[in-house]
Design brief:
Length: 439
């Protein structure tokens, strides 16, 4: 009787340990799959899927293939194997060895098992070949038409020394589903970055030629022009300048994304920079009947920064305020040094991240315009997003704020927004005390 009771306890303990291992695997798998969304390379995502399948689903070997539509072939990008290790990093987690891949392409044509599997089946197909080997497709999201078949992005081949049962198959399916979303996001990001860089560089040369010829016409080098023709040519010049600004924004965005934006550090007179921005934008503000003023509180110290990039940030912020505040509106640029404890709560985390121990330099761009809707406030710093699309006929690339946020971070500061619909908006650039030096 006692032996039977002891055996029962042992079985229960074994079941408990198995449940704990399964829970640990599931948690680790979920956390690892979520981390794949931060990768910007599709092949790296596939490698992560293969590694996590071995580590968390207890598979012996997983190979990942991407689909190369230019070559019309499968290309092996990752091979993860369970390492011969007597000690696992944690119970239930395998040690993984990333082996060399076979770079030879597999043509997408009949006659090869993997190619035939890639050419057939529905989205996220999982096929068991002999119980110990599983083939899986990685496909993208549906298009606007729900009947559209998902685009094939890759193939996964999973192998085990024992039968791959329903539980491990379900885990593998979940990992592939999350991983496919990460692959698609990475591919979209790669394509967008390439498109931005290519388009901006290709536009630069013809735009420069247009401006050069237009300048020759305005100077009368091709003959006399009348006032109406001059007006038309001046409008062409203004449009070219706007396009040139968009191209420069695209190039800046591309440089910021790749970490190639040059930044120098030198003492910068913030007051002089603000006055320069006010002088530059005053004519535009006057044409729109907007009051543009500055408020310098106390004696401001010099700040160690890049004068050109700081001016670019302030030009974007003040220029946006002038455009969107509306006729008869007011825009104020206020600069001051404040103790950390006086900063609004929304800025506390940002200031702490900048190691602002005592004081911070705040540059605020304040307007009394229509404000920004709460739903839009989280998106105004996104690339190509423009708030109030139905309320304004102003033109722009939708990149100014996105570039400004990246530049401010590159300069070691933080940018925040506070806005109340119908009352106005305040954009604040914060630089910690560690970046400020006295005159």
């Amino acid at each position: 009787m006692e032996e039977h009771h002891a055996e029962k306890i042992e079985r229960l303990q074994a079941q408990l340990e198995q449940a704990q291992v399964a829970e640990r695997r599931a948690r680790g798998l979920l956390d690892s799959a979520a981390s794949l969304m931060g990768l910007d390379d599709a092949s790296a995502v596939m490698a992560g899927i293969a590694e996590n399948a071995v580590r968390h689903i207890d598979l012996e070997r997983v190979r990942a293939y991407r689909v190369d539509y230019d070559q019309e072939a499968l290309i092996e990008v990752a091979r993860a194997e369970r390492a011969d290790s007597k000690q696992e990093p944690l119970p239930g987690l395998a040690t993984v060895h990333m082996a060399e891949v076979d770079p030879s392409p597999i043509p997408l044509e009949q006659g090869d098992r993997l190619a035939e599997f890639a050419l057939g089946g529905d989205d996220l197909v999982i096929e068991r070949t002999d119980g110990r080997r599983v083939l899986a497709q990685m496909r993208g999201r549906h298009g606007s038409d729900v009947t559209t078949r998902r685009a094939l992005m890759g193939i996964l081949v999973a192998e085990s020394c024992e039968s791959i049962g329903p539980r491990r198959t379900r885990l593998l399916r979940a990992l592939i589903s999350l991983g496919s979303a990460a692959i698609e996001a990475a591919r979209v990001e790669q394509f967008r970055a390439h498109l931005i860089s290519a388009v901006s560089h290709e536009l630069r040369t013809p735009l420069a030629a247009i401006r050069a010829y237009n300048e020759l016409l305005l100077d009368g080098d091709a003959g006399e022009i009348n006032e109406e023709q001059r007006l038309f040519l001046q409008r062409i010049e203004a449009t070219c300048m706007r396009l040139d600004r968009i191209v420069e924004d695209l190039l800046d965005l591309s440089r910021l994304r790749t970490g190639e934006m040059p930044v120098r550090q030198e003492p910068v007179d913030v007051v002089a920079t603000i006055e320069h921005i006010i002088d530059t934008l005053s004519p535009e503000a006057a044409r729109s009947h907007v009051t543009l003023t500055e408020e310098i509180v106390g004696d401001l110290p010099l700040i160690s920064s890049d004068p050109d990039r700081l001016a670019q940030v302030l030009f974007n912020l003040v220029g946006n305020a002038v455009k969107y505040v509306g006729e008869g509106g007011e825009v104020k640029v206020r600069a001051r040094v404040v103790p950390t404890r006086q900063c609004p709560s929304r800025r506390d985390e940002a200031i702490a991240a900048g190691n602002c121990a005592g004081e911070c330099l705040l540059i605020e761009v304040i307007d009394n315009g229509p404000g920004i809707a709460p739903d839009d406030q989280e998106r105004v710093f996104d690339e190509f997003f423009r708030a109030h699309p139905m309320e304004s006929n102003t033109k722009g690339s939708g990149l100014g704020l996105a570039i400004s946020r990246r530049l401010v971070r590159l300069l070691g500061g933080t940018i925040t927004l506070e806005s109340t619909p119908g009352e106005g908006s305040t954009f604040t650039v914060i630089f910690p005390l560690s970046q400020v030096s006295s005159h």
